[in-house]
What we know:
Blueprint: H1 6-11, H2 13-16, H3 19-24, H4 26-34, E1 54-58, H5 59-63, H6 70-74, E2 108-112, E3 115-116, E4 135-141, H7 146-149, E5 156-162, E6 168-178, E7 185-195, E8 199-210, E9 213-214, E10 231-232, E11 239-241, E12 254-257, E13 263-265, H8 268-271, E14 273-274, E15 280-282, E16 285-299, E17 302-319, E18 323-329, H9 338-343, E19 347-353, E20 360-381, E21 384-407, H10 409-416, E22 419-421, E23 427-431, E24 434-435, H11 453-459, E25 460-485, E26 488-506, H12 509-512, E27 524-545, E28 548-562, E29 566-580, E30 583-594, H13 598-602, E31 606-608, E32 611-612, H14 626-634, E33 650-651, E34 656-659, E35 667-678, E36 686-702, H15 706-715, H16 718-724, E37 728-730, E38 741-747, E39 749-766, E40 774-790, E41 798-799, E42 804-805, E43 808-809, E44 813-823, E45 826-835, E46 838-841, H17 846-852, E47 859-860, E48 863-864, E49 867-870, E50 873-883, E51 888-895, E52 923-931
Parallel strand pairs: 2-5, 34-38
Antiparallel strand pairs: 1-4, 2-3, 4-5, 6-7, 6-52, 7-8, 8-16, 9-15, 10-14, 11-12, 11-19, 12-13, 16-17, 17-20, 18-19, 20-21, 21-25, 22-23, 23-24, 25-26, 26-27, 27-28, 28-29, 29-30, 30-35, 31-34, 32-33, 35-36, 36-39, 37-38, 39-40, 40-41, 40-44, 42-43, 44-45, 45-50, 46-49, 47-48, 50-51, 51-52
Helix pairs in contact: 15-16
Amino acid sequence: MGLLPAGIAIALVPAFASAQEADAAPAQDATTLDRIEVTGSRIKRADVETSQPIFSLSRAEIEKQGVTSVADVLQRISTNGAALNSTFNNGGDGSSGVSLRNLGSSRTLVLVNGRRWTTQLDGSVDLNTIPASIIERVEVLKDGASTIYGSDAIAGVVNIITRRNFEGAEAGAYLGQYSAQDGDRQAYDFSLGVSNDRSSVLLGASYVKEEAVMAGDRKISAGGPPFFGGQSGTGFPGSFVDNMGTASNADDVRYVLDAQGNKVVYDSAVHGYNTAPDNYLLTPQERTSLFAQATFDIADNLTFRAETLYNQRISEQLLAAMPVTGLTLSSQSYYAPQEYKNLGRDLIGVNRRFQETGGRSFNQDVKNFHFYGGLEGFFNVGERTFDWDVGYRYDRTDQNDLTHGLFNVQALNNAYGPSFMDTDGVVKCGAPGAVIAGCVPINPLGGLGSISPEALNYAGFTAHDSSRVVSKSYTANISGDIVDLPAGPLGFAAGYEHRAESGQFDPDAFIAAGLSTGNARSPTAGSYSLDEFYLELAVPVLADLPFAKLLDFSVATRYSDFSNFGNTLNSKFGFRWKPMDDLLIRGNWSEGFRAPSISNLYGGNTDSFESYIDPCSSHSPLRGNPQVAARCAAEGVPANYVQPGNGASRQTLEPFTWTSNDQLQPETSTSKTLGFVYSPSWLTGFDIAVDWYKVKIENAITRPEAQFILDKCYAGTAGEQAAYCGLYQRGGTSAGNPNIIDKLEMPLLNLAQYEVEGYDVTLNYRLPETAYGKFSITWDTSYTSKWIATATKDSVAEERQGLYLPQDPYWRIKSNLYLDWTKGDFGATWGMRYKSGIDEECPFTGADAQEYCSDPNRVTADGPAPRNHLGAVTYHDIQFRYNTPWNATVSVGSNNVFDKDPPLSLTAPYNMFDPQYDVPGRYYYLQYRQRF
Length: 932
């Protein structure tokens, strides 16, 4: 299937289109191919092979994959790394992205018809906003292209091209389900196209509904032994600490009450709670889309073009019920044990999961609106033709979120406070004669059902968050041939764009005020604008000579002036050389950049609980440094101070604060590619493309960890101390322990550096037709030889190729092999999707490491470093098709036909496997498409 070199892929687009589309306008197709604009260049030309590697997926190839979202298709391609998708439950938001080279979704630019698409506050594009039913083909540029498209095109560009020249009507239906009889999917779409000599209109509508899969319904994600992937220390009945009258509970014994009300020591094996079955493994969503596209020829050389889209996504994530932790139950509470009432001693550190709520449900209602309108045409100067276009784009995203299962901390404190049995037999908050109106006492020490619905209604609340992102742009482009050179015409393209971006996020008032049991978040609001100019040249040098059938250069530069940080200039240079007709050698060098997003610049503060080792703690490896000791002494921290937590890295009891930074500068990058395309004339239908690539990103926007900030403050240079020492505070709010770091700001900074290198190989062979039908093979592979991250310029480089980090896999090899067969009205496709094995850190020591980790005895220069290996995975997909006599196509298929399970991970934060792998189980589907 269609991961093809650029020239071959685009030349085959009409063949892959539906028969009705091809029959509707064969002359128009030929004209389009005569002068075409290829992703990565604004110059229209007949020769579509550029100096940059591109591959294309046609509409027919997308339908052969048996999925309901373009995101599912793009996340399978070999160059994609780790990106959000519907398998992300904890940490997901219903959106799906694409992350070329594993460099992040915000560094992959997504276009629709060559124009920017609506983004989220972080600058990434949710691919679920683009219905698959409107797509004609997808072109993926596997190289940086900031000189042509501006910000974000660092890792590459995805250009989604909608259907054109469609006349008639078409309807499709899709039904699918996993072999466990869950995860049902259904999709329906309808398209109508009409045209005449001067105008054309295309209308489309689609509806997709994807049901959930529960984590408890798959063995790997259900929790329990041997790894207890969903085990939590907070369950029910609630537990508490007996602090024996001391001020600190760090090392004291935790208890629960048994069914008879007796105090027994808490045992995680008995009183812990397996949260895994309460979570979604595959999250549900509904998408409804309406699309319209129209053209009108005002004159022979002047056309008006407009397109508009409305898309609504309703999605949900479900987590186990809220663990309410760290509260104090008054000794005067009706539900306090009698011995504590007698002693007048409060129960501290009370932890209890409020399972009576049924869980925490996060719901999104996202509405996207897109409009583009413009004029395009051509004019002649002498014998030369120049193409031009001007247009206006407006994109808007409105999102409303509802979160159920949260609690008001003030109400909880009242409900945990003094309470009594009134004369009417009802337990009430407060004291006789001083009842707290509306308050319902809570019994956090009881079993499931001990918290009444009235208590839940009093203390709980539903959070209402909202956000909006608006993007507007005005564009003008012109292209054509300037002058004839000995090897051909000198082509050019030039253009201007003005763009304005604005966004806001308004959290629920309780959350903004820090009164929720969830993490506090502050509002976000900000905007910026920019003006850009670009120039691109295609310079022919040699043609039709021995060892130089073709030699030309492409040169481009773009000037961008941003309202918030200033200007930047980025340029590129590429070449194409054909020493013979069968061989094209190509290369490219380009500069790129990514401007900070609205959330990077203006995002509201967010609470985060971090783990760190206090440099002033006596167990810290830095404590013996005289510079560190002097600073600790100046802060009044005694030499024998021990950070609570028995000498381990401690997670904060008090939340630290993530902050944005309106002084951020753009990330910068340099990209290089070098490769060849070989299409031997002696082997008809065969071609192979091999490309080397290297991407280096500097000044990458990153959030330094708490440990990094503290280490730089205490043990860094004078400049580092000035930058980081003002970000923390000791003992301001921590009662009883003035030495604890209880406040720390963690801002975004331009600190990191990334370097990625590897090879892409695409082999395609369309065999000659035989008596048994037509056969074709496409094999597309990406190999990552280097993926290096450096936290700062003076930090030790971290090699990630071949490693697994939690929810961030770095496969060395991703490969897709597709075998396709057609004979008459019948067809079949067999696909194989391969991910190579990766290694993770072994989280165990001793006997557990020997039992569960594949390399428990691994040792490096730094000491013991055991690892565990996650094996390679190959998924097999199959589809059978039949074109009926009544102009319809029926397809049946199965993905993961051999029921391959994902590799079990010991460090995956949820489900015991990474969400980039398929949900376990065979998936079956039926597609029907009727053309009228």
